Amino acid sequence: MRRTLPMIVLLGLSLPFAHKPVHVDDANFLAMARHAAKDPWRPHDFPINWQGTTESAFDVLSNPPGIAWWLAPLSDASITAMHLWMLPWLILAAWGALQLGSIVAKRPNSAALLLCGAPIAILATQALTPDLPLLACVLAGMAGLMQENTTKTLSSKWPWAVLVGLGAVFRYSGVAMIPLVGLWAWMHGDRRSAFRLAAAASLPLALLIVHDLLAYDAIHLLAMTGFQSVSNTAGDLGHKTVASIAALGGAAALPILCWHHSKRAIAGAIVGAIMGAIAAHLTHQLSAPTLATILFSAAGGATLSAVFKPKDRMDQFLLVWLGTGLLFLIMLRFSASRYWIPFFAPAILIPLRYASRRQVLMASILTPLLGFALAMDDLDLAHTQQLAAQKAMLHPAGRVAGHWGFQHHLEAAGWVPVEDDELLGKQELVAISRNAWPQSTSNACWEWMEVTPFPDPRPGLRVLTYAGGANIHGNMLSGWPPARVFAPWTIAQDAMEHLTVRRTCP
Question: What is the pLDDT along the chain (506 residues), one digit of tens a residue?
Fold first, then answer.
């Protein structure tokens, strides 16, 4: 009975957001799901404007088709129905978190609240993205793999290894989990099972590769490897490193449990703050963004301090799991808080083994509360983009510059995306979202323009703000040039969105 309480809490944190409009990357996954409903064999075989120019989804949507296949049966249903359709993954993720908490720290309820109640997990639960299925596959699969079982050998746990590997069918970051499946058996002295389990974990990916070759005569994973490897200068790597550490401490594993070893936590916070200060200086941030960068980098440093000096084999394995994730994130095209989804569990599970009861209680309360508060602001952001699109629709259908939910709503009303650097015709209307990475046109002459700011309906915590220099959905804010940011959220009260509608000259 006690283990049902976290599940009730997690469902309670999800159901109030079942009406959330299409938001951020929901739009491209929903587009792929609708195509998959028509052609399930080739879900990436359709044109989309998602990077500024219309091209094949195979070339520009960098995720495998798992979520498209899952959403396809309800792709034309109401937004509420689609959100409810995602809840089985939350139940599986919560089960896995309960099992991991019991196996690793004998604290199942706290583990479930901290893992599935983390801000990035709550945001994933109310999204139509692959993040929640990936979280479920990783937590449940690793829990099954790591369960103590004296009557069966490790090699008999191959179904759990397959479940871990299934995560790679939803996001390619799941590929990084495959070697960890084999490592668990290897560290327990069963090398034969290590290879068998790693092979079992590779099975879903292998089948996906065969599918791609038959469907497209190409391997999508290899195409996306090149697509992602475009920001690996020293400055880019440093930016992604600091942003990933800040996201870990600010939106995944809050720096509460780490204080079981206060001296180490203080040292980690100092190192993180120094990294944040250097990053803020190099990117010319102003006062408020600088403060947010330093604070969240310090939080991430404190969180990481709790995983060093592993005391046993369990700690060692969890540390490799976390380190693999950090290395993977640094090599991606850009960083976003949600990219920690398959990798952040060790940052909670390791200190959960040693923290005091008071620290665990505090973390188990504050983490879901923060997640809910940030989710409320993200809901406001989604509604604001919908309101901006609706205001644009007061004009005759024209062209749309911007992506995310803004593009989704206007395309549904007959608006057509602008091609990057396109020269538009005479007296064409263009609706532009400041936040949603708008494309630029080649036109120099505009006869009319209207700019509408949308105020924050609930000033305070913000997951995307220019004045505060924060973005939980990425490490950049759109602009000319884009602004580098590090903090996943902050406190601000600037306008939540700006809509510009303008018309080209006769």
Answer: 567 888 899 999 999 999 999 999 999 999 999 999 999 999 999 999 998 899 999 999 889 999 999 999 999 999 999 999 999 999 999 999 999 999 999 999 999 999 999 999 999 999 999 999 999 999 999 999 998 754 457 778 899 999 999 999 999 999 999 999 999 989 887 788 889 999 999 999 999 999 999 999 999 998 887 655 556 788 888 899 999 999 999 999 999 999 988 899 999 999 999 999 999 999 999 899 999 999 999 999 999 999 988 889 999 999 999 999 999 999 888 889 999 999 999 999 999 999 999 999 999 999 999 999 999 999 999 999 999 999 999 999 999 999 999 999 999 999 999 999 999 999 999 999 999 999 999 988 999 999 999 999 999 999 999 999 999 999 999 988 899 999 999 999 999 999 999 999 98
Phi, psi (deg, nearest 5) at residue 504 = -70, 160
Count of alpha carbons within 13 angstroms of residue 399, beta-carbon side: 23
Structural contact between residues 102 and 4, judged by C-beta atoms closer than 8 angstroms = no
What letter would DSSP give residue 314? H
Q: Collapse the DSSP code of 397 into the 3-class scheme (helix H, G, I; strand E, B; otherwise coil) and give the result.
A: coil
Q: Which amino acid is at 195?
A: F
**CB neighbours of residue 426 within 10 Å:** 11
Residue 190 burial (C-beta neighbours within 10 Å; 0-12, 13-18, 19+): middle
Beta bridge partners of 484: 476
Interhelix angle 191-216/158-166, nearest 10 degrees? 40
Partners of residue 422 on adjacent β-strands: 441
What's the CA gap between 124 and 257, in Å, rounded? 23
- In angstroms, rounded to a whole number, what is the distance separating the alpha carbons of residues 139 and 206? 21
Instruction: Classify residue 439 by its DSSP letter.
Output: P
Nearest CA among 66, 193, 89, 190 for reference residue 135: 89
Q: What distance, in Å, lies between the first and last C-alpha atoms of the chain?
A: 70
Yes or no: say if 489 and 431 are a contact pair by the CB < 8 Å rule: no
Q: How far apart are CA 290 and CA 149, in angstroms?
A: 50
CA 167, CA 186: separation in Å to the nearest integer? 22
Q: Which helix (H) or strand (E) holds 160?
A: helix 158-166
Q: What angle do CA 111, 117, 121 make, to 5 degrees?
A: 110
Q: What token pair was written down for 69?
A: 């296949």
**DSSP structure class, residue 106:** S
